[in-house]
Amino acid sequence: MHYFSSDFKLGILGGGQLGKMLLYETRKWDIHTKVMDASEEAPCKISCNEFVLGSLLDFDTVYNFGKGLDVLTIEIENVNTDALEKLEGEGVKVYPQPSALRIIQNKATQKLFYTDNDIPTSPFTRFAYTSEIKDSITNGGLVFPFVWKSAQFGYDGQGVKVVRSFSDLDDLPNVECIAEEMVDFKNELAVIVARNSNGEVKTYPVVEMEFHPEANQVEYVICPARIDEKVAQKAQEIALKVSNNIKHVGLLAVELFQTQDDQILVNEVAPRPHNSGHYSIEASYTNQFEQHIRAILGLPLGKTESKVAGIMVNLVGAENHTGDVVYKNMEAALQLDGVTPHIYGKKQTRPFRKMGHVTIVDEDMSRARQVAQKVKETIKVISK
Ligand code: ADP
């Protein structure tokens, strides 16, 4: 198969920022792309070859989009898997495979998969409806506090809530969900594993994530994680084990907890490029987006090591600001050394919406961390 400057066609389901950054790489290699998204204002629109407006969850829409493509990938996992299975049966290469997506799409199924495969994860109970949780607490089957997670369609912390009392359950949607034991963690870590269609596998260094306390969104991603080498090794081994068991093709981002006594528990995975790998655009030999393309096309995987320390700061919409976006103090941030902003192209901001990110690179990690803090304090994402 010829991919470069040829009639080969790559489809991408989802046209958000991950897709947009994937398209930097297809443009670099002159690979023809067709993207579908439900929004007319999708960030991908400006750089794909063909854009289709449509619902990612509708069987016919996804099936019709995929027919005639050579390879089909995703940048979001909430897509119609039945349509992908049919396409796969008809010879379209779908990566990640629908079988991998099915395990991951539902958090209850995903957690069961970990326990079935002897992968360390926090204990949990599955409920068909949130309303069943109250009974379980009354019967002593479940104790406060626990973490409630919607089984489906959670994203960026939206489907997650710490429940400390009965009243915390009141506002939750009555849907399939899990109740997870609260993990007393020291650190949240992530490892990206790349696997190509020939079975070659490589892991990226362990990164460390710092979360915004209220919004449950990543504030800084730090590569390499400032943790003990032994703990880092354990994290990589566990991420590899998850990857080997899921047998995905493409990237798998594995989010992990490091507990107070240095156990590693798997939180969740995403079978695609991930926020925790954005630093790689500036800091790695092969960035995660190029790596995903290499993996799904069966090309040799690139070197995953970093050239320099990298820190990623998410640019999220400021609280109390909704409307046409303005990026304030960008010039001041650009005066700092080693700073590269990425603006996703969403015209409307709202509180905590991911609007962009900034990567800070430096040979010295502590200097990078200082600059990251300055960037965070300087740039404001507000409305007009
Ligand atoms: P999402 O799919 O929305 O990213 P996650 O399952 O990753 O949701 O949860 C979001 C955040 O909530 C995690 O990054 C972590 O900070 C916190 N969290 C999730 N599960 C637990 C848990 N079992 N114990 C403690 N904190 C948790």
Q: Portion of residues in helices?
A: 25-40%
Instruction: List how many beta strands DSSP finds.
Output: 21
Main sheet makeup: 9 strands, antiparallel
N-to-C span? 49 Å
Residue share in β-strands: 25-35%
Count of alpha and pi helical runs: 11
Task: Using the alpha-carbon principal axes, give the shape.
Answer: globular
Which residues sit in consecutive blocks of at least 5 with pLDDT less than 50? Answer: none
Rounded to the nearest angstrom, the radius of gyration is 21 Å
Distinct small-molecule ligands in the complex? adenosine-5'-diphosphate
Average pLDDT number: 96
Question: What does this protein structure show overall?
Answer:
The chain is of the alpha+beta class and 384 residues long. The protein has 11 helices and 21 strands. The strands form 4 sheets. Strands 10, 11, 12, 13, 14, 15, 16, 18 and 20 form a 9-stranded antiparallel sheet that branches. Helix 1 (17-28) packs across helix 9, helix 3 (81-89) packs antiparallel against helix 4 (98-105) and helix 4 packs across helix 5. It is globular, with a radius of gyration of 21 Å. The model has no long low-confidence stretch (mean pLDDT 96). The structure holds adenosine-5'-diphosphate (ADP). Adenosine-5'-diphosphate binds next to strand 7 and strand 15.
Q: Could you write a compact summary of the structure shown?
A:
This protein is of the alpha+beta class.
Question: What distinguishing features does this structure have?
Answer:
384 residues, alpha+beta, five-stranded parallel sheet, 21 strands, binds adenosine-5'-diphosphate
